[in-house]
Specification:
By secondary structure, this protein is an all-beta fold. It contains two helices and 20 strands. It has two domains: 138 residues; 84 residues, Immunoglobulin-like, CATH 2.60.40.
């Protein structure tokens, strides 16, 4: 089935299709009135019911290899919504006991449409719940990614440790070996708003040397005199915004060694917090 709430989803009921409706809290019955004016009389009438979406929104679709059926989950951001469940913004997932299930996860509650508070500068992680009818190969597809310019959106596979940029790679294929239960810990959506940073003068920043790059067991950092009068904090940050290694570079020295023996291979940001402001460089660890 497909959900609709707060203008998210498709409000059209096809002929002969059953539907569910939520009643107000504390009530067990309700009345629904269908008016003749609400009938669609043209084959393309569905598109006329929709206006251009202005809210930040991501919709994922789940599909099995070689199978026509799909399921979907939507995350959007709007003023007034929160990270908890609210019937005005969220649609609860009605589980399919013998088919595909894709939803966001809030503890014991799953949502097919998840309205979230407006994104700020902090990273937002939204856990996903994934259920499939049988072991096999499945694919996530980004069917919609709207109004999130400047906000990288990643699909994080915690089982394999992969991080997929959904703007650059809108589909992700994975294998399920055990389909016995709903998995609420393997996948999550990660929204990483980019914060504007004050930087040191360009001439000084260009004198910061980081080598070798790519690096393996150790990387060398060379600072110009103008940035080495005070201690500098060096932080290695992964694509999820987590600090995986940090150390203080003592004042008065131009050359410093940063050990990488315990750092997993990948692309990192090396952030140097100096007395004049931050300097950020990309570093590849092999």
């Amino acid at each position: 089935y497909r959900s609709y709430v707060n203008g998210i989803g498709n409000p059209v009921l096809p002929l002969g299709q059953a539907f569910f409706a939520r009643v107000a809290a504390g009530l067990s019955t309700a009345t629904i009135t269908f008016r003749n004016s609400q009938r669609l009389t043209a084959p393309d009438g569905t598109t006329l019911q929709r206006t251009a979406e202005t809210r930040p929104l991501v919709q994922l679709t789940l599909q099995g290899a070689g199978r026509p059926l799909t399921d979907e989950a939507t995350v959007y951001f709007e003023q007034g919504a929160t990270t908890g469940f609210e019937s005005a913004y969220d649609a609860e997932k009605l589980p399919n006991s013998n088919g595909l299930n894709l939803a966001t996860s809030q503890g014991s509650r799953q949502l097919s449409i998840d309205g979230q508070a407006v994104l700020g500068t902090a990273q937002r992680v939204v856990p996903l719940a994934v259920g499939v009818p049988a072991a096999g190969v499945y694919t996530f597809t980004t069917s919609q990614l709207l109004n999130l310019a400047g906000v990288p959106v990643y699909l994080h596979d915690t089982q394999l440790g992969t991080l997929t940029d959904l703007r650059q790679q809108p589909s992700y294929q994975f294998t399920v070996a055990n389909a016995a239960a709903l998995n609420t810990t393997r996948f999550e959506l990660v929204f990483s708003p980019q914060q504007p940073l004050a930087t040191v003068p360009a001439a000084l920043a260009q004198q910061v040397a980081v080598y070798p790059n790519p690096a393996k067991s150790q990387v060398t950092i060379e600072l110009p005199l103008g940035l080495s009068r005070q201690p500098v904090t060096a932080a290695l940050v992964d694509a999820l915004g987590r600090v995986v290694h940090q150390q203080v570079l003592p004042a008065g020295l131009a050359t410093h060694a940063l050990p990488l023996a315990d750092v997993a291979p990948g692309l990192y940001s090396l952030r140097l917090s100096t007395e004049l402001g931050p300097v950020v460089q990309k570093l590849v660890v092999e």
